[in-house]
């Protein structure tokens, strides 16, 4: 199902640009650009990611892939530490993903507690399945049954320990009232050479 | 350097069907997984398609799990013969050995990001020779840099003797390079001021193994898998030699292997073993010997020892004297046995000694080691208790640096004896050896002139020079440092750095001229004034040895930039071909050394390429564990170069020693000391050589020496180092995602995002008492880091004990401090801290005592001590973009 975006939530802008950027740049500019891109179809664009920490609060370019907007679930349906499965960005190989309310603020988290995040389920090492490995105590996925990699869901899916060749692809979320939409991804899905070639 | 802000890519180009495909092996850990490089020109604008017929992998995309997927970190663009080329570097899906399923670690998995590409953080590769003038390193020609180094080198030797000329080098950066470097240092310059990256002296790393008769790398990977009980000491292979764990030990655990880890830190591999019924001996640092001997004692008290093996393969009183002695010559082997501290009259004598040591009572040992005594009994049972039908478990023992760098001589002696009584060694699944750190690329081009070493041990024995202490004493006037982070990689590193500074930049003789003659004159004056000239040869400018102290810098070419050879942890020899152009004027180490040696007037350095170096070097491999001389014989017979012959074996390689069968085929050696191996009844034919280690142990008789391992030789140092008041042990080691100094990892945004700087793990109880939380900046500090001073001559038997050194004023107490980001985790034993072992800016070794193991001459790196306090909040504490503070032992 395809939805035209009614508005882009501040959370979404945070995902893309970091929290300080909302105040600094205002969301209109980003929204306009995003709306343009979304209405003109599937695209990849470069945005400036503001770094809220580090020696210099510099901006670095970030590749954010934005895809067809897809309804995932109702925010009110999500229960803490109970992952909900969905397919994204298509129904092809390795599309299986999960959304979870961590109960702990997370990078890219949406909702009033900024604790709702979504990730692809396929290990970015050798394609092991991470379904059923959610660790509520650690807010992690894993260990992967193949080679034991674990991923931190509070920090953009970075590996905690293990062999993954990149962070677990994070599904970018957007909130529209009580509706949660997937709108894009950070990172390449295992097995694919392009996220949209499933 | 990279920033910690990694943004993953979302697509990659696939290699077209006609891409070049080269086989190689990984540059990093001991395992040396097989890899394939796919290379194709950018110019044509061609990429492969998603159908099997359209790409070089011959598979449809999306690929299956374990398939040839290409993560963005596995893709790069390089110059090959001056033209931009795409490269994809992924584990070899077809290899039949090592990483058999085409698996790889996170290190090797990102090999593509190590190659030079000026658009990436590798842009600061050293690209031209440099000379420090007016305080600044300035690019110059090779000719000028080599001429000045040669002039000063020759002058130093002439005026101050060979020992004033130091060569400190990597031991493993491929056989072509190590052969050339050691030929130059040992055969040509002939200096005793020579050692490798990980030790102050050129001495054996595992003295107990050597004296028992065990090769460090005798086992094959299949043996670790075939073991029914595997004791792993001082390492978690998952954390540092991944594929050895995931592809060999993990399947064994799934198959019922009883795995015992003796290590104070619980990481993913330990957690996996425990979850599957394994045992974790969570000892406090330095107490390994007590636990090992307590296990041995329980085994013997129950009569579980492998009596048959002991009868057949342990030296008795007379054999032992012959086995150790090698006559009356002045050998390290001999002096280690002086005063009867280690040598036994055979098994019964060993048992008598073992039972007489109260500290090996299980309860006493468990108390000192701070472990549950039941674990000692359980380990003994698993390792040695015969089954109801009388058959024995196949037991193997694996050790690594956490173990042998805690009490170097004592621990390696103790574990050798435990190995002997449990029948480890010489049979499938019943082996003892090292897991390994770096790959095995050493090949000696000269022998160490031990008689030139001033290091004299009690009883007229000479030991290889301690290069750190010699430098601290001001004797080193010229230091050629090759591919190693000298200073931070040594213990008590901060006081060592201060001395380097004094001898180099604080010396009044600084180059303030562009004239060749004036530069030479100034540096000669430096040498004569008691200062030191430093030449640093590396791929990046290392801080501080290169960036601050070096007068001359030589840019080196590395992995993939010339064709090299090396062996892995099961002696598997492989070719590492050149596949792209080295940056700028960077040259392989053999070339640099050859040209320097020639300018110094030495002969025998006229090699035109790396193959010629290896062909010359081949005969020096004879009799070694990676003997490949017969490959050269075969190559010559077939009209090929030696490198061409190596290439034929692809990623499968061949295990040394290599023998040639009567029909001319080449055969590798699965394991050393293989008592089940049958060699040709008619003996070695042609140029073959049957070394004793093929079928026997490395002693005079070919049987094992069972040795004592007295705690008292180490206990004074341990008790002195032991944390007092609010101090904690400070220990260190590898983590999976960083290799050595992080020279590549610091330039990988993905890894820098995970580990932007050094960190320290601390137990929650210790953290709470000090008000420390994960993400806090902390200071680790001490004002009592012991540093051994002076090159002394030992007279009395105990002159080199820590107590005596202290009494006689040869120990200086120094201050040290390093910062780190705190990671609070219950995975670490209480009472200790754990850091990554080699961050150049925040070196853990600063807090380790610079006091060598007095028997062997090695540092006990893992024995550090200090206090810790919060100094503030790091930027990583509350940001989500870098680091993770989740525990690493989720199982």
Structure notes:
The complex is a heterodimer of chains A (198) and B (891). In chain A, the strands form 2 sheets. In chain A, strands 1-2-11-10-5-4-3 form a 7-stranded antiparallel sheet, with helices on one face. In chain A, helix 1 crosses helix 2. Chain A contains 3 helices and 11 strands; from the N terminus they run αααβββββββββββ. Chain A has 198 residues and is α+β, with helices and mostly antiparallel strands. Chain A is globular, with a radius of gyration of 16 Å. Chain B has 891 residues and is α/β, with parallel strands linked by helices. In chain B, strands 5, 6, 7, 8, 16, 17, 18 and 21 form an 8-stranded mixed sheet that branches. In chain B, a hairpin with a 5-residue loop joins strand 23 and strand 24. In chain B, helix 2 runs parallel beside helix 20, helix 3 crosses helix 23 and helix 9 packs parallel to helix 17. The two termini of chain B are 34 Å apart. At the A-B interface, strand 2 and strand 9 of A face helix 7, helix 8 and helix 27 of B.
